[in-house]
Protein 1
Amino acid sequence: MDLAIFDLDNTLLGGDSDYLWGRWLVQHQLVDGAFYDRENQRFYSEYKNGTMDIFEFLRFALQPLANNDLDKLLALRQRFMTEVIQPIMLPAAQRLVDRHRAQGHTLLIITATNRFVTEPIAHAFGIDQLIATDPELKDGRYTGEVSGTPSFREGKIIRLNQWLTDNGYNLASSWFYSDSLNDLPLLEIVTHPFAVDADETLTHHAQTKGWPVISLRDGFTPPND
């Protein structure tokens, strides 16, 4: 059972959907612009250097979902997909996904970004299996709370192990592609770890371990394994 796992932000995408969604909310005046933009940038910087408190971030990031009507959010998300996400869906990333699909591998995206933002992005890449941080939904409205374990750092392993159990898979023949030092715990346990357009810490670790270091930016063709 071959399993190809992909991080999303700055791996399959040429940007971070969580950060860009925050900027989109500011642009469309659904949040306090100056405060939200400042905090969004702070959390993004903390994420990149590996110091982000995921629960503090989620209290911040999920509140706009709770503060707005779901129909309004869905309409805004549709425009976000068209105007912001589609332009940063990397062609080489789609080729990599399609190569694994052609080989009969099961495809899975695993991301710390919440499911509301990422579910249509996964579908756009043609990937049905998604593990994402789940915002709590009650009576057709988001509560601002997280449901279950956030899929971040070691939480990705917890969520993945549950998915493996539920679906009858294992990691005996598995690939994982990621850009971030935050994904080192998961990269360490798959059979084929790949550092993709990686940050400095992950690049150094990958080179030390002998892992492939690749790019999915424009013009790059993913190598054969």
Protein 2
Amino acid sequence: MNESRKTPLVLVILLICIFLPTFAAVPFPQQDSTLVIKDVLIQTSAAYLWLSPVIHVATVVLLIALYRYGSKIGRVADAFFGILFLFFAFSNHIAVTENYGLTVITSNLVPISIVGLFWMWEVYRPHNEYTFERLPAWRYWVLPFVFLAFWSPINASLSPDFNPLLLLTSSFGVMYCPTTPLIIAILTLIYPKVNMLVLRTTSLVGLVIGLFNTMSFFIMPGYTLWNLILHTPLIFISAYGLLIPILVKKNVPLETLQKEK
């Protein structure tokens, strides 16, 4: 299928998947969906925190290596990100809860899995060129938001917690929402030398999940304003990932744009 037709089709499929229903062993009325999702996320957000320091350190090492060696380790970076997305899909969205038994949030699991598979395909046929050239200053606006997501200064009651130790032990690396901004930001910093399908699918799913979190502030009991603020990196950077071909088009050589098509 022609690339110009394949990408919109994939994006439409992802949007449809995001509206898949949540399944649980114990039947529940549809209006209780937010409570079911809350139960799953409370359980899964704590289940893998023991992995957090390892992934924090591995991410920093990878970023340093990418800056130093670039595309020589591009496939390592692609595989690392692909594995993370597949990990998020299943670890964050499947749980055995006390109230609902085995529960699966398919509306997140399926699209994030698809994104992870696209990243794994990128490992097989790489298009991302991790060469970090000097960019216009405005294109580095993502970095403070990436740092906020990496730190994720929040405690179990969803209140602010600026403990520096969270730079090593936060939910970054084990939860989808704080980790995805960094991955998309990296792609925006190497744009236009990126796999556009990977950038668009990753950004679309990130934006929709981020916007659903915005809705959760109004409909999910216990969802705090601070938790909403910590989802702004996911929302802003995902939107930027979708819009970057428009925003930086004037700076992209014609030859590169023709290759994208």
Protein 3
Amino acid sequence: MTYIVYHFLISPKELGSEILLAELDGIGFDSFEETEKGLDAYIKKENCHAGILSPVKILNSKEFVIIYSKEELPQINWNSEWEKNFNPILIENEVGIRAPFHKKIQNVDYEIVIEPKMSFGTGHHETTHVMIQHILELDLEEKKVLDMGCGTGVLAILAEMKGAKHIDAIDIDTWSCENSIENIERNNCHCINVFKGDALLLKNKTYDVVLANINRNILLRDIKIYSKSLKKGGMLLLSGFYTKDVPAIELEVVKYNFKTLNHKVINDWIGIKFIKL
């Protein structure tokens, strides 16, 4: 399968990347990668045409400066590429995460088998790691859980393994949703529902626990929605941002009657646990 990749340089980057990703996702682009100065967006060659970017409104916005180039990627065995760099990981000696081609991990409470493809969330990135550490400390027995920005589905899978009775996993990326479904089946999970979309899908839904490993700007925008979806005494776990972003995050959550319980940090990436009062 041949892919076309568009390299976008965006200013201001964070908000522009979010808007651009949402628009590209709606016209056939199926995977994305954040870069230092913008966004790389991938689309199958057969779905690409000369006017593919015509409907993308942000490209004509005066609020953003966006320039781009594109290239055709050679046909690559993507599985072979990530297999070269994907090693099993052990978290807190309780969770082992491996790919299907790895040997079974012995002497762990939870073994998760993940084939990430182009999706985010193998446990190797610091934000996924700290979220798993937080989840290990939670009592999820018979709880209703939301995994927002589910990526590979690894957090939702761990939630079910810890006894959650109902999990909704949501991601804006088509590829991530498909990958989550594959990994859910691979781990014999039966309580996870996958949805493509954003926080607007949460209307009239309530949860005991909300997991959101996304990025600073999306979290700041959607904390209000998470609050409406959380029961009193419910837990909100947030990651996807740096320690320098904590004041902005905490300033926002306090508006909706949350109290900070604790946090975990790895290499300046942070995950924070809040309780709704």
Protein 4
Amino acid sequence: MSNIIYIGYEFKVAPLQPGSEILIAELGYAGFESFVENHEGVTAYIQKEEWRADILADIQILDSEEFEITYTFNEIEQTNWNEEWEKNFKPIIVDDLVTVRAPFHDQPITKYDLIIEPKMSFGTGHHETTHMMIQHIIRNDFNGKTVLDMGCGTGLLAILAEKVGASKLEAIDIDNWCYLNSVENVERNRCEHISVFEGDVALLQDKKYDIIIANINRNILLQDIAVYAKCLNNNGSLFLSGFYEDDLKLITETCAKNGLLFEDKILRNNWVAAKFVIK
């Protein structure tokens, strides 16, 4: 990885929290691959070949009156990626039931132990959206269900879904790095029922699932909800995250047009993860 050129952004954020957490989540969806938090804000990295001049155009928090955020950026050369994320990746515990940790962390005493080596993929559980989706999975019945994890990132949600009893799972991501990382993490957690694919909703033709998990972003969700609805079995459930609470009304209306009723939500620092069911 040492020859990959990166663009590094230095963000100063006030107030620091939850500003930094929201900023990291939004940057993750925009393609930024790693983040280092500090006492002033966040340093974020993206591969130069993935960078574009308007990369921050859809970062909503930059336009928020609740936060003051300034930034500078410059070109850097990656020297030791693993060392950098190992220093900053801390294990997390969700609802005293699920631990998300790296291979070099001590084994926890929680019921579910997920070993994730995120590298450049989004979805370690630290971001609000992933954290809430973990909560949905452990609070709902996945036993014996067929499950799709759309936009799987590290594969974390599919891995947890298998551990809570799902019988057959598919994990899909359009990004090659996420696909490869998910394959690695599925093997690392000794999962036997997860198939990982690289691609988008075009892969869902003629597919059917009991549960679909999609932690992506608002625009892609709005575009693909109709496809998800067609892929759900009777009494199926759709879990969506990757958007703000203010966007829930629009998401709910789009789901309703496709035969999906709002049933439940979890909120965390202005982000929301919602559950919908087939009418």
